[in-house]
């Protein structure tokens, strides 16, 4: 951008002479046409560079140091010690595994239910707007509020869910202290908040499928269920991939739900036995409870690398699958 | 809801309202079946599942601690709603949190919409070197998870003296890649090239074109982006939780304190949860249809 301005000749000095003013206007116009687009996109990149890209790189640098929260200007070089420490730390593997299992528990039912809900919403309906808005309402609920309510519903002694289980003859479940129960309860918060949102994404994609594909399938004698499998699902495949990507990113970042579910100090450690501590909670615990900023940065980078590995695997898998089908 | 159901049969188009002229039923049949009773029942269950936790928040917030911690739990509202809301507002710092969240979410949504419209316009309608590369870069930035930034950001904010202050929460989220992309997609379709050209022929400079030609066209999409960004900013959790504390919280930060035993009364906790979600619920009741449309539009074109 700077090169455009500097290479241009200086504006004509005469004030209102015809050709000079014209030339000057023409120059300004060219400058405007060339420069304005950059000026319009610069705010985005400036903010991103300052508050995302620079910290991203700096996180890597910090992860090679020992830094205490109380004395953050003193950085002691330790090379890859933080990484070796982390990878030999049981708590890291526990948090990683919990992140994966809660991720699966929350994502798989969520997307399947969203698919079903989208299919229902795609019927010709009376009050379709009402159903759509209602499905999206949980998305408008704050993580904090949703987690508080669900924590109450899952309460061991007076929670509604244990009461309902008792009413149909099951025993009480100690949702917080039992590992899998706690992870399911946390997953249910995620499912509740995001199913409707994903359903709307699917619905939009379903409505964009050309109608004649369904007609062709119907003429071939495909039942509605076969049409769903053979026309609808392939038709919205890009959107399905998109939601899987979004949900995976969301799952690796899970933080607020388990934190609040643990009600207080138990939240940060993810339960008394770390039974539902996620990587996000571990990051926070390392940095802001144990004051090891270097180790917190290490957790952040490992999370990022895991995400990259997952996406590379996903790309390879889909390439392998499309190669096999063609 | 009821009025709409009653009115629906008179409409030429289905309530979804997407199709203009009516098509013969046989052709329609390939795609949009009328919903049968089973579909309505299933949708009813889904709606109930979506709304029940919110209803129960209201129920619990309107009782008292003794009632709410009994089994079976209450299913009908009690008399203490306003008393509990008042307690949550003062005792649990919800009042401060609501004002802070209004400021934070309002500022973030405003700047996101402004910068996204500017950049979206440039990417959609202006020709410049490196446009495609820069657009790819915008999309690429969506992949960077926010955790990656928190440690240096925390150091940065402490150094700037912004620890526990609202600018620390506002500045890192002033722009959004999704927003840029959304506005680009919208303006590509909605803004005719001829309109921009006409502006140029009339001698308008780019900012003038943006102001008088682009903004009026972009307004519906801007409104939707504003609301969606507002929801996200209001609910943003991780970074505010790290950088703010209870003396100056946003709503989600204050809500964690509620759960952490800051307040013992369970019905007041629920009142806090209700309070913290109320502004968004009001927005959804008033503009829900447009928000739904915006999310679906972003998806089709994304």
UniProtKB/TrEMBL annotation, chain A:
Residues 96-314 form the ABC transmembrane type-1 domain. It is found in: Cell membrane. The chain crosses the membrane at residues 38-62, 95-121, 133-154, 180-204, 239-256, 298-317. SUPFAM superfamilies: MetI-like (SSF161098). The keyword rRNA-binding does not apply. It comes from the Bacteria. This is Lactose transport system permease protein LacF. CDD domains: TM_PBP2 (cd06261). It is a multi-pass membrane protein. Its main location: membrane. One of its GO terms (biological process) is transmembrane transport. Belongs to the binding-protein-dependent transport system permease family. Signal peptide: none annotated. PROSITE patterns: ABC_TM1. GO terms for cellular component: plasma membrane. It comes from Streptomyces smaragdinus. Keywords: Cell membrane, Membrane, Transmembrane, Transmembrane helix, Transport.
From TrEMBL, chain B:
Residues 1-23 are annotated as: Disordered. This is Lactose transport system permease protein LacG. Its main location: membrane. Gene3D superfamilies: MetI-like. GO terms for cellular component: plasma membrane. It comes from Streptomyces smaragdinus. It comes from the Bacteria. The lineage of its organism: Bacteria, Bacillati, Actinomycetota, Actinomycetes, Kitasatosporales. The chain crosses the membrane at residues 38-56, 97-121, 133-154, 166-187, 208-234, 268-287. It is found in: Cell membrane. The keyword tRNA-binding does not apply. It is a multi-pass membrane protein. One of its GO terms (biological process) is transmembrane transport. Belongs to the binding-protein-dependent transport system permease family.
């Amino acid at each position: 951008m700077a090169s455009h301005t500097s290479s241009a000749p200086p504006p004509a000095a005469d004030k209102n002479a015809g050709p000079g003013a014209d030339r000057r206007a023409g120059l300004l116009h060219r400058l405007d046409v060339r420069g304005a687009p950059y000026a319009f996109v610069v705010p985005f990149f400036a903010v991103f560079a300052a508050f995302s890209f620079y910290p991203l790189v700096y996180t890597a640098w910090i992860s090679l140091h020992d830094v205490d929260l109380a004395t953050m200007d003193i950085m002691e070089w330790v090379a890859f010690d933080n990484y070796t420490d982390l990878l030999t730390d049981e708590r890291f593997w526990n948090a990683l595994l919990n992140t994966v299992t809660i991720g699966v528990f929350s994502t798989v039912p969520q997307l399947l239910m969203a698919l079903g809900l989208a299919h229902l919403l795609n019927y010709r309906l009376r009050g379709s707007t009402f159903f759509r808005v209602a499905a999206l309402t949980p998305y408008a609920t704050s993580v904090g509020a949703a987690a508080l309510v669900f924590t109450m519903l899952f309460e061991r002694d007076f929670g509604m869910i244990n009461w309902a289980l008792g009413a149909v003859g099951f025993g009480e479940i100690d949702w917080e202290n039992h590992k899998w129960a706690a992870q399911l309860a946390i997953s249910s918060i995620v499912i509740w908040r995001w199913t409707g949102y994903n359903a709307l994404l699917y619905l939009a994609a379903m409505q964009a499928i050309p109608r004649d594909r369904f007609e062709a399938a119907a003429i071939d004698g495909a039942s509605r269920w076969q049409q769903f499998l053979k026309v609808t699902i392939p038709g919205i495949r890009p959107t399905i991939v998109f939601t899987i990507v979004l949900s995976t990113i969301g799952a690796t970042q899970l933080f607020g739900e388990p934190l609040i579910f643990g009600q207080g100090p138990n939240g940060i450690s993810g339960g008394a036995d770390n039974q539902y501590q996620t990587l996000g909670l571990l990051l926070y615990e390392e940095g802001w409870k144990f004051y090891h900023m270097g180790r917190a940065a290490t957790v952040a980078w490992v999370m990022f690398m895991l995400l990259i590995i997952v996406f590379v695997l996903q790309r390879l898998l889909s390439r392998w699958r499309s190669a096999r089908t063609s | 809801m009821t009025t709409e159901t009653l009115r629906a049969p008179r409409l030429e188009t289905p309530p979804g309202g997407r199709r203009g002229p009516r098509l013969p039923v046989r052709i329609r049949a390939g795609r949009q079946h009328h919903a049968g009773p089973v579909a309505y029942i299933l949708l009813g269950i889904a709606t109930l599942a979506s709304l029940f936790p919110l209803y129960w928040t209201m129920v619990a917030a309107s009782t008292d601690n003794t009632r709410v911690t009994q089994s079976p739990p209450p299913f009908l509202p009690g008399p203490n709603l306003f008393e509990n809301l008042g307690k949550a507002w003062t005792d649990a710092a919800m009042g401060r949190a609501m004002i802070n969240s209004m400021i934070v979410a309002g500022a973030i949504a405003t700047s996101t919409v402004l910068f996204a419209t500017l950049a979206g316009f440039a990417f959609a309608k202006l020709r410049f070197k490196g446009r495609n590369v820069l657009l790819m870069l915008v999309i690429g930035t969506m992949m960077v998870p926010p955790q990656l930034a928190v440690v240096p950001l925390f150091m940065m904010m402490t150094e700037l003296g912004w620890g526990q202050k609202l600018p620390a929460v506002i500045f890192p989220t002033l722009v959004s890649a999704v927003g840029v992309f959304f506005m680009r997609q919208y303006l590509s379709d909605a803004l005719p090239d001829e309109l921009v050209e006409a502006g140029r022929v009339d001698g308008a400079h780019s900012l003038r074109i943006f102001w008088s030609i682009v903004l009026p066209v972009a307004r519906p999409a801007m409104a939707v982006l504003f609301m969606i960004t507002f929801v996200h900013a209001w609910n943003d959790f991780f970074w505010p939780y790290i950088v703010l504390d209870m003396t100056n919280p946003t709503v989600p930060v204050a809500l964690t304190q509620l759960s952490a035993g800051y307040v013992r009364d369970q019905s007041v906790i629920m009142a806090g949860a209700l309070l913290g979600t109320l502004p968004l619920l009001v927005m959804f009741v008033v503009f829900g249809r447009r928000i739904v449309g915006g999310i679906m539009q972003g998806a089709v074109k994304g």
